[in-house]
Amino acid sequence: SYYLKESKGSRRWLLFLEGGWYCFNRENCDTRYDTMRRLMSSREWPATRVGTGILSSQPEENPHWWNANMVFIPYCSSDVWSGASSKSEKNEYAFMGALIIQEVIKELVGKGLSTAKVLLLAGSSAGGTGVLLNVDRVAEQLEEMGYQGIQVRGLADSGWFLDNKQYRRTDCIDTITCAPTEAIRRGIRYWNGIVPERCKLQFKEGEEWNCFFGYKIYPTLRCPVFVVQWLFDEAQLTVDNVHLTGQPVQEGQWLYIQNLGRELRNTLKDVTASFAPACLSHEIITRNHWTDIQVKGTSLPRALHCWDRSLHESNKNGKAPLKGCPIHLIDSCPWPHCNPSCPTIRDQFTGQDMNVIQFLMHMGFDVQKMAQQQGLEPSKLLGMLSSGN
C-alpha cells in the first residue's frame, strides 16, 4: 500500500520511505508483530494521512517541495527495504521491502510519474538506509521501462549508520542491543536481502552487510544523494549501548559520544551534499520544525534547494558550486547540542525544556574542566556555548 497526493501542475515527485528499525529472527519478529503491528501489517493503517515536513503541502512548512506529487510508502517489511522473500513453509513472515518499492514505481508510472522530470526518493532512519540501497535500482527500473528522462535522486535522513565498536559489548539478543553489523548480517540471511550490484562487487561473498553502511555504499552509487545526519544520532547511540537516562554520564561515555561525532564527521567529508548538525536527535525531514535547524547559518530546506539548483546547473554546463548557496554543511563544534538551533531537549523526569547549558550540565559536563582543556575562562566558554560558536 502507499498514500498519494497528486499535484497535477508539477513534474516533481517525492517518494518517501518510512523508517522504524527492523527484526532479524523469528523471536524478535514475533515480538514486533505483537507490539508494533502497524510496522508489519497494513490491516490497521488509516485511510488518509497528513504530510508533514518535506511532505507538507503548506509553503510555510515546506518552502521548496510543497507543490510536488507526494507519495508516502509505509514500512511493513521490517527488512530495511531490502528483502525479496515471500512467506514460505520455513518462514512465517514475508520480507519484500525491495519489491514493494518496485511495485509502487510500476503503478505510479500510470498515474503521471511517466512525465516526471525529477523523482526524489527520500526516507528517514531505516527508510534513509533504504534510499541508499534502492536509489540506483529505481533509476535502472525507470530506464528499463523507457523513461530515461527522469532524474532520480536520493535524500537519506538519519540512515547513515556506523559499524563502530559499541560502548559496551552485548550479546545479540534483541534489535536494540545487537551490534548493527551482527543484526544486519543475520537480517540479510533471514530476509533474503538484496544489495546493489556495484556495492556487492566491492566485498567478498557473505560480506554484503557492508552495503547497509552509508560510508561504504555511497562511493558506489550513480544517482546523486543528499545525506542528512545528526552527528549524535540517538539510534546510533542506542545500538552502541550509550543510554542517556537522565543520570549524568560517566567520563568514558562522554568521550565515546564526542568521538562518535568525530567519526561521523569524518565519514561525511567526501559526501558532496550533506547536512550534519551537532545535535542529539533522530530523523528530521518529516518533522514540522525541520525548517528551524541551521548549520553555519543555512537551513535544511535552503540547502536542499541549493542542491537542486546545483544539479540543474551542472546538467547544463558543469559550473563550479553556486556562490552563497552551500550544499556541504557539517557542524564543527564538538558536543551534542553545541549548535543553538538544535531541537529542544526535554528533561525526561520533569518534562521541562532545557537549554544547551542546562543539558550539558545535566549530562555531567564539567564546565571548569572543559574550559581548562580549551584554555578558556569558564565564563567565556559558557558564553560561547549559549551562542553556539
Describe this structure in words.
With 389 residues, the chain is an alpha/beta fold. The chain folds into 2 domains: 3-343, Rossmann fold (3-Layer(aba) Sandwich); 345-388, no CATH class. The protein is 33% helix and 13% strand. It has helices at residues 26-35, 97-109, 126-144, 180-191, 197-200, 214-217, 234-239, 251-267, 300-317, 356-362, 367-374, 378-387, and strands at residues 3-5, 12-17, 69-73, 118-124, 151-157, 225-228, 232-233, 273-276, 280-281, 294-295, 298-299, 328-330, 345-346, 353-354. An 8-stranded mixed sheet has the order 1-3-2-4-5-6-8-12, sandwiched between helices. A two-stranded parallel sheet has the order 7-9. A two-stranded antiparallel sheet has the order 10-11. Strand 10 (294-295) and strand 11 form a beta hairpin. Helix 2 packs across helix 3 (126-144) and helix 11 crosses helix 12 (378-387). The radius of gyration is 21 Å and the shape is globular. The mean pLDDT is 91. Belongs to the pectinacetylesterase family. Notum subfamily. This is NOTUM carboxylesterase. It comes from Toxostoma redivivum (California thrasher). One of its GO terms (molecular function) is palmitoleyl hydrolase activity. It holds the Pfam family PAE.
Helix content: 25-40%
Query: What is the structural class?
Result: alpha/beta
What kind of sheet is the major sheet? 8 strands, mixed
Number of helices: 12
**The CATH topology of the largest domain, please?**
Rossmann fold
GO molecular function, one term: palmitoleyl hydrolase activity
Family: Belongs to the pectinacetylesterase family. Notum subfamily.
Organism: Toxostoma redivivum
Protein name: NOTUM carboxylesterase
